# Entry
Amino acid sequence: DQRDRSSDILSLDAKFRYLDERTGELKLFIEDAVATVDQLRKSSAGELHALGVRLSQEEREKQLGDVVCRIAAVANEQRLVDGRLGANLSGVEDRIAELRSVHK
# Structure
């Protein structure tokens, strides 16, 4: 039974590590996307032309829209991860209560 508890703890630890990694990746992705949006907003037509990039206002708006959609998708994924974490924690709490009742 001690092995079961150790296994549960290791499994939970692995889940938390995975969630920490995913949260870190999502945070970096969002920061990158926000920086891209800021850069696009700050870019004047002259600066873009100097860079050899000719974007119409429509194309710039489409790029901004694409980035906003990506941010929304990431935020949605984060909500799903948070939901799974909540469900996992609930299951773990039930398991802990079960183990405590057995060991009383």
